[in-house]
Write a structure and sequence with these properties.
By secondary structure, this protein is an alpha/beta fold. It has one domain: Rossmann fold. It has six helices and nine strands. β1, α1 and β2 form a beta-alpha-beta unit. α1 packs parallel to α2 and α1 packs across α6. The longest helix is centred in the last third of the chain and has 25 residues. Bound molecules: 5-O-phosphono-beta-D-ribofuranosylamine.
Length: 200
């Protein structure tokens, strides 16, 4: 696949387990030239709405069969993406995959890490009663939501918001920023010093 400049575009693979709204936004952004990459495949670990989106968008998809870790490793080895994008993938990647794809896997999390890692982060945040929350985009390491932070965006929680309102505000800033940050990761220079990510 080539971009308007005629240069070969990097290929990415998206991993999801659920609704797939970030996946869809990534595909749209790639077609709009906001994300200079093409989505080679969607990989899911179960039947989920993301697959319906892939069908609609004409993106190849694969559901991981057991043993999922071995199959994922094999699949990535075959597809050889330039970058692996986690977008609501609800499994912890095994250390051998993280090692093999070191600094080539990115994740988005719906809180300001290191606060509220893990599942149901938006609900956790809401119920805790914090006044500021946001999103974190980070390089994936072997921990859960612990990798070097690439990008964060904060929002203030208005006390009139219910949980659904907060969820939609969070998804809005995810959709706005994830494709742009992936584009920068693919096309700009950066390094990781210790646990600090920095653009060069
Ligand atoms: C997003 O909130 C993302 O931050 C988290 O899982 C959710 C996925 O949403 N990791 P969707 O499937 O992209 O709609």
């Amino acid at each position: 696949m080539h971009g308007v400049s005629g240069r070969k575009l990097p290929g990415i693979v998206v991993l999801a387990s659920g609704n797939g709204s970030n996946f869809q936004r990534i595909v749209e952004a790639s077609r709009q030239g906001i994300l200079r990459a093409y989505v080679k495949m969607l990989i899911v670990d179960k039947d989920c709405y993301a697959v319906e989106r892939a069908k609609r968008l004409g993106i190849p998809f694969k559901k991981l069969e057991k043993p999922w870790r071995e199959n994922l490793k094999k699949l990535l080895g075959e597809i050889k993406p330039d970058f692996v994008v986690l977008a609501g993938f609800m499994r912890i990647l095994p250390p051998d995959i993280v090692k093999e794809w070191a600094n080539k896997i990115v994740n988005i999390h719906p809180s300001l890490l290191p606060s509220f890692p893990g599942k149901d982060a938006i609900k956790q945040t809401y119920e805790y009663g914090v006044k500021v929350t946001g999103i974190t985009i980070h390089i994936v390491d072997e921990g859960v939501d612990t990798g070097p932070i690439v990008f964060q965006r904060a929002i203030e929680i208005d006390q009139s918001w219910d949980l659904e309102t907060l969820e939609s505000k969070i998804h809005e800033i995810e959709h706005e920023n994830y494709p742009k940050v992936i584009d920068r990761l693919l096309h700009e220079k950066w390094r990781i010093e210790g646990r600090k990510f920095e653009w060069i």
